[in-house]
Amino acid sequence: MAMDSVYASHPRHFYLAVDRLQFKMQTVIELVARRPCFLIVVCCSTRNDLDSLCSPLPFVFCSALSQTHFLPPPNEDERSHMIIVTDACLPLLASGEFPLNAHLLINYELPAKKETYGRCLISRYCADGIVINMVVGGEVVTLKSIEESSTIVMQEMPMQILDFMKTILLLAFVNG
Q1: What does the alpha-carbon distance between residue 49 and residue 53 come to, in Å, rounded to a whole number?
Q2: What is this structure's pTM?
Q3: pLDDT for res 9
Q4: What are phi and psi of 40, to 5 degrees?
Q5: How many structural domains does the chain have?
Q6: Lower CB density within 10 Å: C or N end of the chain?
Q7: pLDDT number for residue 4
Q8: Structural domain contains residue 93
Q9: Which domain range does residue 46 map to?
């Protein structure tokens, strides 16, 4: 199977473990600052976390969702768009709401329930996307529990993650 077809048909799941909680924010900022131009969704669990994520990211288009509706602003195609959303604001596909169709999902915090993790994946679903789970220390055990209860294989995030993102963006553009 060609590498391009693997990227085009399956989301890739990675985790990024950091030593301390304060390193999570720094790592997200560095990752977002070097991103290719496409929609990024960052999921967190609480409104306080949403506020703390939005405040240090003024250089990126951030849309903190207090509702489940989002329309990107016109003429912003050259930049990435970032949606920072709490678990409670994820679109309910069963209710007819549309998925976010992001190519990059960053789980800033792991959801407390495995069902919420699955809903997060489905609501942002873009088949050729990348999922990055940010974990601190002991959260790796929770992440592995989610992995074992699903068919998802989560690998440690490689250094060349930006190359993966660029390939995905190119394939999404080519496939229309």
Answers
A1: 6
A2: 0.72
A3: 45
A4: -120, 130
A5: 1
A6: C
A7: 38
A8: yes
A9: 3-64+77-168
